[in-house]
Amino acid sequence: MTKKQNRIFKKNIFEPEEKEVVSLSVYNTGYQRCEPGHSWGPGIRDHFLIHHIVKGCGILESRGRTFSIHAGDSFLIYPGQEVHYYADMGDPWEYYWVGFSGTEVPSLMLSTDFTEEQPIIHHGPKESQEMKRRLLRIYDARGNDLANQVEMTGRVYTLLSFLISVSTKTGRRNDSSGEYVKKAVNYIASNYSYEITVEEIAAYVGISRSHLFRAFREYLGESPKEYLTAVRINAATALLRDSSLNITAVARSVGFTDSLYFSKVFRRIKGMPPTEYVKTLQQNSI
Predict the structure, then answer these.
(1) Coil, helix or strand for 135?
(2) How many domains does the chain have?
(3) Based on the domain organization, do 122 and 209 belong to the same domain?
(4) In this structure, what CATH number is given to the domain that contains residue 211?
(5) What's the CA angle centered on 77, arms 73 and 81, to 5 degrees?
(6) Can you tell me the distance from the alpha carbon of 177 to that of 242, in angstroms, rounded to the nearest whole number?
(7) Which domain holds residue 56?
(8) Does 150 lie in the same domain as 12?
(9) Could you list the mean pLDDT of each consecutive 10-residue stretch along the chain, which spans 286 residues?
(10) pTM, rounded to two decimals
């Protein structure tokens, strides 16, 4: 390959028109050889997004920290978290990625080595090659038919299975605090649309509110209330984007009884009220 060919920057991306599978749906998948300095953000995603670097390097800025990322590394973007990432000017990265979300995803991610405080996994050569292979298989299954959607979902599960199998947490399955968090996360995923409270979540898990608070802080870096609120607001953004419900109906659908309070919380997290968010979506679709 000539030097001129080495400078050709390519992007291949697929975004399904519909998300058919509630438990886990693919939002986008692809691979890209980035130009020097190519960046995304600062901004917030409404889904989980895994990037795996196969060549070059770059920077991820998240939660007030800066991470230097190199070939063989994977990084995870969490929904609702402001991030900024960009390719190195001298040795820009090439990466494969998949974006996904669903009711089962938060608890599955707890079993991988990704955390919100440390969203990077450093892979050895064999693991890195396997990450690339599994991500490419997700892209190869792309399509808007239900069969394609289910196939992509299945292949994301195999990717997560691989990440769980190589996790340093694999030998620590009896970690009671981690199990409490998983149980609480699953309960929230199934019940966030109701008027549940942190006390009810703790009671369901079978521990005190203070114990649940400490467990969430340790494993997720935020309180149960913050996590519940983030889940509700992320669900609200999806409804505002994909449905014709008004603001009051959206608020009730994600567990808020007071639409004014919902708007206040939405603005605090998303940086704009829901009405403005809808206008922005409409303008971008023109």
Answers:
(1) helix
(2) 2
(3) no
(4) 1.10.10.60
(5) 145
(6) 36
(7) 3-170
(8) yes
(9) 46 65 82 94 90 97 92 94 93 96 85 90 95 96 89 95 86 67 88 93 93 88 91 88 90 94 93 90 66
(10) 0.69
